[in-house]
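#struct-pred
JK: can someone run the complex with iron/sulfur cluster? inputs below
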Amino acid sequence: MAVSVEKENMAPIEKKLKVVFADPPFGRESKGEAVTESPNLGILYIIGYAKPRLPEVEFYYLEPFLSIEEHIERIRQIKPDVYAISFTTPRKELAYETLSKVKSLGLKMVIAAGGAHPTIDPQDVLKAAKVDVCIVGEGEETTCELLNKILANQPITDVVGTVNAQKNNGIRPLLKDIDFLPAWEMIDFENYDIAVSKKKRMAYMLPIRGCPNYCTFCSNPVWKLEKPWIRMRSPKNIAEEVNYLYGRGIREIYLRSDTFNVDIKWCLEVCGEIEKLNLKGMAFQCNLRADKLNDELAQKLRSISVWLVHIGIESANDRVLKGIGKNIVHADTIRTLELLKKHNIKVYGFLMLYNAWETNGKLEYETPQEVSNTLEFARKCLSENLIEYISWSITNPIIGSKLHDIAKKFDIASYNVKIGNCMRLPNISEEQMVEHVKQGMILQLLNGIQKGMITKKSYKRAAQKAVKILNM
Ligand code: SF4
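RT: done, structure tokens with the ligand placed:
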């Protein structure tokens, strides 16, 4: 509000509106896990966008590595006017517990929720956590409008892009210009650590928002509320951020957008701008699709020191790739892996077991033979150094994905067996699935040990995995 506080014989003191953005508190024992590898870029982007527009607001960020006690203590000290927590569906229970503890402090504040789960299911959040407002979809402009209303002491019930107990205010159009930087100044990079990296100081970066594809198993459609599905930052703006991070001591950047090579020409330009910076000792990782890589781009990636690319290979079977809407064929994967090897770029391959999809109203799914083909392909790639690291997941319908609806329709929804959550596929026994999962996990674990991925920080997880395999 910039609240005016007047005291006797004193000039009015302008008190800033205090706004806390928060991740669920995963605690320090979560160090080394994906949730604490990086600060929440969604939150940092909102603050980065809002700060210059709202000088009357003081922003705080409660980071994911805090324990729940530390998180609550910070709220007690800050006494915010607005508290906004961001979370995904698998983290909703922790978020609800946190919200309940925040509320029990009895402070007078507006409580908001944003991120993937409040976007997919705002009614669940309103019912379970009784927040004042859910921010749906991209948060920058919606947050600014919301805070402007609070500053002006106006009701916040009709802000486009929000849902509250009374009203759904519809979807806000996406930002056209995404050429701005997240609020990196709020971050101490010493607090973050990424499992696979060459350099100690590392950061995530988002050169692109969105993904033009629609794979059945992926939760990315959660954000496809509005078009365009893909927006790219200008190569110069990306290079500006790389330069800033370098100045902050960062020596490795993971270009974390879903797909970096969505447009080869743009991708070459981005690499060109980064190359011009001539930053000594800098390294990169990025996510690539297997169907959009040519020799020129592979060479350019190498020239800016991209040493590792992450590729969603998913399956070694064209029938499956087509069914899940991956829009690639297996030959694309082989060609891309060979091209990357030629340019001395390592690959982190992500594979899936027992995928399912719908064709002409009929349920289809991966056969045990097809799963065996994928396993065999992974073994071959590891032995020929076409893939450096692998990771498996057994397909599980994620809320927000097309597969989630398919699983509901055919009554094969997620259930918990000793291998974790998976679908109940007709004529495929649990024993059969367990056998394949076991093979995949052993391959992953042995490869991880061989490649030195089982470090001190990941030892606990590796040991838990080994026990799980032994108990299968
Ligand atoms: S799996 Fe990758 S390519 Fe497919 S929709 Fe998700 S982000 Fe896009």
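RT: quick notes.
The longest strand covers residues 306-314.
The mean pLDDT is 92.
JK: thanks, will look after standup
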